[in-house]
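Quick review question:
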């Protein structure tokens, strides 16, 4: 009796467990055009080049598939909305236009896809781009200005490569030279970008009129500098100067007072 009940229960449950719902369909895919089993699209070219490739949209289901496509920078598609019949695939041409003046290096972007019928699923294909050309590293220091102990300067990346500048400040005056490394510098300075920084010298051991030099380096052969003039006054120096002046005035007043009270010598009669 128990065996017959188990058999009857399985007869009822198995069809439901094994059957595929009528609305379910195999997943569609978006991938680089077939040929080499590529996991992503790779393109290489110089600034100004137009690079071409293809994507493949595959619909293994029993109903038509409509997908809306989106792109990153520099990428254009032959169509942004594609409908693929059941059990069919469609090739989608794409072009990558590298803007003139683009610095050499690696770039990554993507093409995205979102199903609108049936809705709900998304996919993406990565595009790895390599921009060829000579690398030029160029750095400049500009707009150096001073206000008391504060130095303000601007670093500008004039080349086409990413720079990691190191900055040294030096103050040259009659009473000596002081050098120090800037406390804050940009971790990376992108081509064409600029960044402004300020540094404060703090307390100085002397009162002096100095020429402040800002020197920036970013690897071998990449160096720039600029200068500005200022007067650096430290509190100890100011106090010492005032104390010295007060002492001189006090001594001078005492001497003047003594000279006024000293009796004049009497001239002898012939």
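Suggested answer, residue by residue:
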């Amino acid at each position: 009796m128990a065996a017959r009940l188990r058999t009857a229960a399985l007869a009822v449950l198995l069809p439901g467990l094994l059957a595929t719902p009528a609305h379910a369909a195999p997943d569609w895919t978006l991938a680089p055009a077939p040929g080499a089993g590529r996991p992503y699209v790779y393109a290489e070219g110089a600034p100004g080049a137009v690079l071409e490739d293809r994507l493949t949209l595959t619909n293994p289901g029993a109903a038509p598939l409509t997908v809306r496509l989106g792109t990153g920078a520099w990428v254009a598609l032959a169509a942004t909305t594609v409908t693929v019949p059941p059990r069919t695939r469609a090739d989608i041409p794409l072009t990558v236009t590298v803007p003139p003046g683009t610095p050499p290096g690696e770039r990554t972007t993507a093409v995205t896809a979102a199903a609108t019928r049936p809705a709900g699923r998304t996919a993406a294909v990565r595009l790895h781009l390599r921009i060829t050309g000579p690398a030029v590293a160029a750095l400049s220091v500009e707009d150096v200005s001073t206000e008391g102990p504060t130095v303000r300067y601007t670093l500008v990346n004039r080349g086409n490569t990413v720079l990691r500048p190191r900055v040294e400040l030096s103050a040259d005056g009659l009473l000596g030279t002081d050098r120090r490394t800037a406390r804050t510098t940009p971790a990376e300075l992108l081509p064409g970008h600029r960044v402004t920084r300020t540094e404060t010298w703090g307390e100085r051991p002397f009162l002096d009129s100095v020429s402040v030099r800002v020197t920036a380096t970013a690897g071998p052969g990449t160096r720039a500098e600029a200068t500005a003039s200022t007067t650096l006054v430290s509190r100890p120096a100011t106090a010492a100067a005032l104390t010295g002046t007060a002492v001189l005035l006090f001594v001078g007043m005492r001497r003047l007072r003594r000279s006024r009270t000293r009796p004049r010598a009497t001239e002898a009669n012939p």
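Why it works: The first strand starts at residue 29 and ends at 32. Residues 139 and 157 are 5 Å apart (CA to CA).
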